[in-house]
Specification:
Layout (H helix, E strand, L loop, with lengths): L14 H11 L12 E5 L11 H19 L3 E5 L1 E2 L3 H16 L3 H4 L1 H25 L10 E2 L3 H16 L3 E11 L4 E3 L4 E16 L6 E6 L10 E4 L13 E3 L6 E6 L11 E4 L5 H10 L25 H14 L3 E14 L7 E10 L1 H13 L4 E3 L2 H11 L4 E2 L1 E2 L9 E4 L5 E3 L14 E3 L3 E2 L1 H5 L2 H4 L8 H6 L2 E7 L3 H16 L4 E7 L2 E2 L16 H8 L1 H9 L8 E2 L2 H23 L15 H22 L3 H30 L3 H18 L4 H8 L24 H23 L8 E7 L2 H6 L1 H7 L2 E7 L9 E6 L2 E6 L6 H26 L2 H6 L2 H27 L1
Parallel strand pairs: 1-2, 3-4, 9-11, 15-23, 22-23, 24-25, 26-27
Antiparallel strand pairs: 5-6, 5-14, 7-8, 7-13, 9-12, 10-11, 14-16, 17-21, 18-19, 18-20, 26-29, 28-29
Helix pairs in contact: 2-16, 9-10, 9-14, 15-16, 16-17, 17-19, 18-19, 18-20, 18-22, 19-20, 19-24, 20-21, 25-27
The chain binds one RNA strand of 77 nucleotides through β8, β12, α7, α10 and β25.
Length: 871
RNA sequence: GGGCGUAUAGCUCAGUUGGUUAGAGCGUCACGUUGACAUCGUGAAGGUCACAGAUUCGAGUUCUGUUACGCCCACCA
């Protein structure tokens, strides 16, 4: 006996120790190695001050499975970790803490001091998520950990910004953008989420100047009326031809605005008249450009009304709305109010309704960049798994607008543009600029910072050393696969693709492996506000990281959401325990100290399990290569539990009890160490713990080689025969169960079979697993004097003498049921075989298989009928 | 308005390029302390693969249409 193992597996006593050992041995570290092929994954960097949630757990588990697999396959496998500075999210957190703890705002501290506080915060909490990733077993190369605002990434950001600016792909302009009045910053289109809300349509009269006439417009946002600079109608709308070019008097304001004609207006919608507010509506902005309309912005940054609002100045936009409606009503200008459901855009960080506003911002010109990004997905250079997400991606990329990249925040990469305080000259430069190249005046850097996603977009190459042409960059880029959720395809995946193409001239990754969202047991999204989130760390404490990982990898297909509940984790935990106990059994019976497989001394069941294992290795490799992780893991589960434990261990027990059976020990260990290796990417800890207790040569399973199919281990014939016996054993158990015969009632077993040698070599487990006392080979049934239950298999028939225990009626019913079943199947097979189309067109192999089935059914049917007659 | 997904056992889900008797986990029922494991074992019950057509020798799987639910994008003010 090598080592005494406890009866149940206790992950908590194992995991930290093993992880520490891996780290110390340096197994996670990858170097450029010309003798190996590279395999690279860059982590989707979690927010630096965030905490691990189930979505991370899924994402990291999938990546770790892939990276461990490839590492064992002999690749130089780099999983590059790091964190994201997460502009708005982090700034909001620190501001909140500042407010709660010190009653201060960031403005009280000033920019420099505030940023220092955020760095302090990052130092304090930045390690937390990294520790949590380690608890999961993530085999990241921690020596290469990066941060989106570290020196290298910042250098890359400046390089890219200046580069794009010089190419004319970054520009500054006064455009309409999404504004969050709570975060006080511009947002990109992708950062706005739309929800349908019940609102109103207010119908308002706009009087025609010097006339009794008026037009009626309908609006959902009456407060923007303050910034109207025209009313538009369709050019061919006959109702309004006479008003074209005339002036209207803007209610509540008194300003005069023209009636203009523009194709944008739909004649049949509403009244056919549209108020035009270029400063507060994207469509109106376009109309304004076409007609040279004045742009009057009526709101401040916090969405209160500014000086253009007259008496409404200082009011919040909704207060102003209320007040204006009341005033309009009083003046008899409010015609009616309609209920109206419409989509309202909200800030994806704070949920505040965004305000479209014209503002001077920085943009990335998307059209030229999108071209290449579209090409590489269309021509398959980059593939999405599952493929349907390439449609989502292409649809977005083909309709993408320019990307607003400036944010009015303090935490982030400050835009490398400098303005002369004297002459207004602007310089964009990688280096700090202090004096104006034109007039020598003092230069001041742009206040705005960049969208967080601007730096994340460079992640696959900035983390490898770009813009320097490092060995790492040459070797590990392009990366192999990107693993992420479908919810950030637009934010991140798309932007990495065009950035990689533009700056590296090569795709950032070859595959995008997309997973879904982890939901609660009722299918709801896990969220803080619902309080239905499950903490992965609590699950790890309770059930172990392996159980959690196994749960996340099982029953989940790429791109689909999954439900998470503890019963599933329990099942995974039970599986770990099953493996644990199987290993206890093997170790208890071990006398060998080295695995030496001698293919010449094998029993049928040995060949059978080796053959089954061989097929498993083939399947798992194929599944993993095709990103079918869920399928790979369910095959492993089935093999380990339902094949190795339920059958092979049971078959081999008599041999082990009988004495030192080296062949059995070798096969037990060979197959066990093999399936542990196959399972290791999914359940790294328990597989390592057991592996090291087995008589293996590798010092760690992490660096052992991944099993692959070997022709020498394919024993098709023995496999098929043992398979038949398994069926037979099941049938015997079934018969006994239906006769209500208790397991302890052991009887003889008579066997009628032509292949006597083979049956003899299996006699031990046949006897044991059919609850028999001994097995007797007979030449004919006639010789038996005892009353028997007959069970038939292919080429074999067994008789169980149960004497008076036999319930004749029950046996009759059982055999009749069996007969009906065989008849049904026989019918099915025959109808296939008599179908000329099938025989002519189906593959020959299939036709032969059907014929064999027919024979088998016929043979069995004859035996069953014979038994029925004898009753 | 456009696009996508899902619909398979009581529940949650797998099901590869069409081809044995459609599977698993959990739950249910019966039996069981057999020398690794009750976090277990043995056996069983449970399915018109949403509906209607089409293609095919053959459809859970492919195509068309319908229904229900979900998601994404666009935004007629």
């Amino acid at each position: 006996m090598r080592k005494e193992l406890s009866k149940t597996y206790d992950p908590s006593s194992v995991e930290d120790r093993i992880y520490k050992n891996w780290e110390e041995k340096g197994y996670f570290h990858a170097e450029p190695d010309s003798k190996k092929e590279p395999y690279t994954i860059v982590i989707p960097p979690p927010n630096v001050t965030g905490q691990l949630h189930m979505g991370h757990a899924l994402d990291e588990t999938l990546q770790d499975i892939l990276i461990r697999y490839k590492r064992m396959k002999g690749f130089s496998a780099l999983w590059l970790p790091g964190t994201d500075h997460a502009g708005i999210a982090t700034q909001i957190k620190v501001e909140e803490a500042l407010r709660v703890n010190e009653g201060l705002t960031r403005y009280d501290l000033g920019r420099d001091e505030f940023i220092k506080r955020v760095w302090d915060w990052k130092e304090k909490f930045g390690d937390r998520i990294i520790h949590q990733l380690k608890k999961l077993g993530s085999s990241c190369d921690w020596e290469r950990e990066r941060f989106t605002m570290d020196e290298g990434c910042s250098k890359a950001v400046k390089e890219v910004f200046v580069n794009l600016y010089e190419k004319g792909l970054i520009y500054k302009g006064n455009r309409i953008i999404n504004w969050c009045p709570h975060c006080i910053t511009a947002l990109s289109d992708a950062e706005v989420e739309y929800t349908e809300q019940q609102g109103h349509f207010w119908h308002i009269k706009y009087p025609v100047k010097d006339s009794d006439e008026f037009v009626i417009i309908a609006t959902t946002r009456p407060e923007t009326l303050l910034g109207d600079t025209a009313v538009a109608v369709h050019p061919e709308d006959e109702r309004y031809q006479h008003l074209l070019g005339k002036m209207l008097v803007l209610p509540l304001v008194g300003r005069e605005i023209p009636v203009i004609a523009d194709e944008y207006v739909e004649k049949d919608f509403g009244t056919g008249c549209v108020k035009i507010t270029p400063a507060h509506d994207p469509n109106d902005f376009e109309v304004g450009l076409r007609h040279n309309l004045e742009v009057i912005k009526v709101m401040n940054d916090d969405a209160t009304i500014n000086h253009y609002g007259g008496k409404y100045e200082g009011m919040d936009r909704y207060e102003a709305r209320k007040a204006m409606i009341a005033d309009l009503q009083e003046q008899g200008l409010l015609v009616k109010i309609e209920e109206h459901a419409h989509n309202v855009g909200q800030c994806y960080r704070c949920g505040t309704t965004v305000e479209p506003i014209t503002s001077s911002q920085w943009f990335v010109k998307m059209e030229p960049l999108a071209k290449e990004a579209i090409r590489v997905v269309k021509d398959g250079t980059i593939s999405f798994v599952p493929d349907r997400f390439s449609k989502t991606y292409l649809n977005w990329m083909e309709n993408v607008h320019d990307w607003c990249i400036s944010r009015q925040l303090w935490w982030g990469h400050r835009i490398p543009a400098y303005y002369c305080e004297a002459c207004g000259e602007m310089v964009v430069s990688k280096e700090d600029v202090h004096t104006c190249p034109k007039c020598g005046g003092k230069m001041k850097q742009e206040d705005d910072v960049l969208d967080t996603w601007f730096s994340s977009a460079l992640w696959p190459f900035s983390t490898l050393g770009w813009p320097d042409n490092t060995e790492e960059l040459k070797y590990f880029y392009p990366t192999s696969v990107l693993v992420t959720g479908y919810d950030i395809i637009f934010f991140w995946v798309a932007r990495m693709i065009f950035s990689g193409m533009e700056h590296m001239g090569q795709e950032p990754f070859k595959h995008v492996f997309i997973h879904g969202i982890v939901r609660d047991s009722q299918g709801r999204k896990m969220s803080k506000s619902l309080g239905n989130g499950i903490d992965p760390l609590e699950i790890i404490d309770q059930y172990g990281a392996d159980a959690l990982r196994f749960t996340l990898a099982t029953g989940n297909s790429p791109g689909n959401d999954m439900r998470f509940y503890t019963e599933r984790v329990e099942a995974s935990r039970n599986f770990a325990n099953k493996i644990w106990n199987a290993s206890r059994f093997v170790l208890m019976n071990l006398t060998i100290d080295k695995i030496e497989l001698d293919l010449n001394t094998l029993e049928p069941e040995d060949k059978w399990i080796l053959s089954k294992f061989n097929a498993l290795a083939k399947d798992v490799n194929e599944n993993l290569d095709k990103f079918e992780l869920g399928m790979a893991v369910s095959k492993l589960y089935d093999f380990i539990w339902n094949v190795y434990c339920d059958w092979y261990i049971e078959m081999v027990k008599p041999r082990l009890m009988a004495g030192e059976d080296k062949a059995a020990q070798n096969v037990l260990c060979y197959v066990m160490s093999g399936f542990l290796k196959l399972l290791h990417p999914f359940m790294p800890f328990i597989t390592e713990e057991i592996f090291q207790a087995l008589p293996v040569e590798d010092e760690s399973i992490m660096i052992a080689s991944f099993p692959e199919y070997q022709e020498a281990l394919n024993f098709a014939e023995a496999e098929a025969k043992v398979e038949t016996y398994i069926e037979l054993i099941t049938s015997v158990r079934n018969a006994r169960s239906e006769m209500n015969v208790p397991p302890k009632n052991k009887t003889k077993l008579y066997v009628l079979c032509e292949d006597k040698d083979f049956v003899s070599s299996c006699s031990e487990f046949l006897t044991k697993l059919t609850y028999s006392s001994e097995m007797i080979l007979v030449d004919s049934k006639d010789a038996l004097s005892e009353k028997c239950v007959n069970v038939v298999g292919q080429g074999i028939e067994v008789m169980i003498p149960l004497n008076e225990l036999i319930d004749k009626e029950k046996e009759f019913a059982r055999l009749t049921k069996e007969k009906e079943f065989l008849l049904k199947e026989l019918n099915l097979v025959r109808s296939k075989l008599s179908n000329k189309g099938f025989v002519d067109k189906a593959p020959e192999k299939l036709v032969q298989a059907e014929k064999a089935k027919e024979q088998s059914f016929l043979e069995k049917l004859a035996k069953v009928e014979e038994s029925l007659n004898e009753l």
